[in-house]
Amino acid sequence: AQSVTQLDSQVPVFEEAPVELRCNYSSSVSVYLFWYVQYPNQGLQLLLKYLSGSTLVKGINGFEAEFNKSQTSFHLRKPSVHISDTAEYFCALEGGGSQGNLIFGKGTKLSVKP
Amino acid sequence: KAGVTQTPRYLIKTRGQQVTLSCSPISGHRSVSWYQQTPGQGLQFLFEYFSETQRNKGNFPGRFSGRQFSNSRSEMNVSTLELGDSALYLCASSMGGAVNTEAFFGQGTRLTVV
Q1: Residue B39: is the preceding peptide bond cis (ω within 30°)?
Q2: Are the Cβ atoms of B56 and A102 closer than 8 angstroms?
Q3: Rounded distance, CA A105 to CA B20, Å?
Q4: Average pLDDT value over all residues in chain A
Q5: Distance set, CA B51 to CA A53, A97, B69, B71, B107 (Å)
Q6: How many Cα atoms are found within 13 Å in the side-chain-facing hemisphere of A15?
Q7: Which among A11, A53, B36, B79 has most CB atoms closer than 10 A?
Q8: Cβ contact, residue pair A99, B103, below 8 Å
């Protein structure tokens, strides 16, 4: 069975500090991996995706993630966060061979403090 | 272009009633997926429709059903509502034909069952 584990439910960090949000996955087949962000009372917005090729993926808003097959990880990083990055972040993998079927982690709430 | 539109945004229903939620995908998108988001269970996949056919289904009871019309608009229905059905219901649309097309999410419908 496929699954996604986000290791931290909450991550507090000061503005301009670096941050890493951790994600591990389990899958017996090749995976496509995604990071989404959700602001309060909003839907989800795609930050970045890994489909194939380079294991370092760059996304919007200065975020990047590295796919590590041996560690089955897809951690999200940003070198310097802003107050506006405060939101909930979800790691997801594509299940069932269709991007219409995403399996999500439980989410990590990033709280950026001044 | 217009994004994914979900109606209504908020809904309050009584236990035992039924409810219908609507999702209008981005123009040209043929795949519509539905997700349930709750604090306890997180984001869970309900089902996906592509070209009016259910392509994938999550692990939800038969009280949850959906359909897709020829213009790709989709509805989901929940019958005999239970308190535990209170959740944010998110709809996502994508082109659906290829695996690496992005899924765009609506703002969701927040259903409260009392």
Answers
A1: no
A2: no
A3: 27
A4: 92
A5: 30, 17, 8, 9, 23
A6: 5
A7: B36
A8: yes
Residue type, A4: V
Phi-psi label, residue B13: left if phi above 0, alpha if psi -120 to 50, beta otherwise? beta
B37's tokens: 């988001």
Mean per-residue pLDDT for A35-44? 92
Which residues of chain A have a CB within 8 Å of the CB of B107? 41-43
Residue of chain A whose alpha carbon sits nearest to that of B10: A41
Q: How far is CA A64 from CA A33, A48, B38, in A?
A: 13, 7, 27
Q: What is the pLDDT of residues B20-77, one digit of tens each?
A: 999 999 999 999 999 999 998 999 999 999 999 998 899 999 999 999 999 999 999 9
Report the relative pairing of strands B109-113 and B10-13 from DSSP bridges: parallel
Distance from CA of A100 to the nearest CA of B (A): 6
Sign of the C-alpha dihedral computed for residues B25, B27, B29 and B30 taken in this order:
positive
Per-residue pLDDT at B98: 61
A1/chain B closest Cα distance in angstroms: 13
